[in-house]
Amino acid sequence: FTDHVALGNEEWNPWDADEKNELAASQQRYEANLKMIKYARSHLEQTSLRVQIWGKAAIGLYLWQHIFGGHLEPADVTAQWREGSQKAGKTYFSFLTGPSVVPGYFSVETEHVVLVLNGREPAKVAYATQWLRFAQTLMETRKVQRVAVVLLGNEQCNNAWIQPYLKRNGGFVNLLFVTYDYAFVNEEDIFQWPLGVATYRSFPVVEPSWSMLHDPRSYLCNFLGTVYKNSSRETLIKILKQDGLDKLCWIAAREQWQPQETNVSFKNYQDALLQSDLTLCPVGINTECYRIYEACSYGSLPVIEDVMTPGDCGNSSLYHSAPLQLLKTMAAPFIFIKNWKELPAILEKEKKMSLQEKIQRRKKLLEWYRNFKAWMRQKFINTLENAFLPSDKG
């Protein structure tokens, strides 16, 4: 028996495994210490701005989890109180949400606040107004210095109620980020914000996988949704049935809108996005819908009915490419159509596309969506910092 047995050119050392383990353990300890030092350092570096975001509308979760890539503790979506924090740019952000976040019943630990509110209908506006009054009181008592609002706007852009609260109109709100093509968007203090995914139905943050990019999909297109009487959605269903195209697509139409998904219907919907090359996006009350962003999450290309819906949206003095001004400005690689009669030709073309071409298109779509969220995050941070930080101009 010899201490060392030659294995090829390598010598076998009976203690080798222990040494390796010890080395790995000390490496881990070293890295952990390094992390601690870095963490302590980053907290010593003064962040110039501290911002607390109060998420009182589901759109806040799109801002925090999807655009900021932030986390919330506890992870349980039904928890009464959830919070998270993140350092970005010169700013330290903390995010609070949940039913327990009630005016006057939590500590305001910052001089700068972003209020996320729902202004979609009168009952929501009444609730949002309570929060604005609370913020106003905090400003009057000098507990808060500046306030921004992220607003889930009304689908017909009837947002007149928020106007008196804006600083430009004698109010106290410095910045407004608002969904849909609100005519008052000016890129100075009023900015368009994406509708995002339906976080109120717990639509998840989707991480693209290899199979999502590369696998053939069973359906050319999908449409799961409500078909309103005398709407373009009826036309869409007719056109699909006419040429037997509904056999090539995953179509599940219902006559009544259901706000709450069952687990089965939600799983079906996600499967449909994952299994279809195209997602059909007919207009609802507004052209912009959650479906657009949800399709992007799964690499299914949105086919969008590009028409203005009735109401007060569109054509600000600054922009004339409404609807979907924000997405068009960001060069969204979608298929825009004016009439569903154009669909059969699109699906014919789709049949002839090779898997390789589809893979390239999915990559482009997923990359665009990732960049879009990163750009919105950066724009949000820059806008806040420009408005909230004292300027260095003498």
Question: Based on helices, strands and strand pairing, what is the structural class?
Answer: alpha/beta
Distance between the termini: 83 Å
Query: Which sheet architecture does the biggest sheet show?
Result: 7 strands, mixed
- Tell me the series of helices and strands, N- to C-terminal: EEHEHEEEHEEEHEHEHEHEHEHH
Overall number of domains:
2
CATH fold name of the largest domain, please? Rossmann fold
**Rg over CA atoms:** 26 Å
Classified in CATH, the superfamily of the largest domain is Glycogen Phosphorylase B
- How many H/I helical runs? 10
- By DSSP, the count of extended strands is 14
Shape: globular
Helix content: 25-40%
Chain-averaged pLDDT: 89
Sequence of strands across the biggest β-sheet? 4-5-3-6-7-8-9
Q: Give the class-level CATH name of the largest domain.
A: Alpha Beta
Uncertain regions spanning at least 5 consecutive residues: 1-13
The CATH architecture of the largest domain can be named as 3-Layer(aba) Sandwich
Fraction in beta strands: 15-25%
Explain what this protein looks like in three dimensions.
- By secondary structure, the chain is an alpha/beta fold.
- The chain has two domains: 47-179, 3-Layer(aba) Sandwich (Rossmann fold); 205-371, Rossmann fold (3-Layer(aba) Sandwich), CATH 3.40.50.
- The protein is 36% helix and 20% strand.
- The chain has helices at residues 16-44, 59-67, 122-140, 210-214, 232-242, 263-275, 290-297, 325-329, 343-352, 355-388; strands at residues 6-7, 10-11, 49-55, 82-88, 91-97, 112-118, 146-152, 173-179, 190-193, 219-226, 249-254, 276-281, 301-305, 335-337.
- A seven-stranded mixed sheet has the order 4-5-3-6-7-8-9, with helices on both faces. It has a five-stranded parallel sheet with strand order 11-10-12-13-14, with helices on both faces. It has a two-stranded antiparallel ribbon with strand order 1-2.
- Helix 8 links the parallel strand 13 (301-305) and strand 14 (335-337).
- The radius of gyration is 26 Å and the shape is globular.
- The model is unreliable at 1-13 (pLDDT under 50).
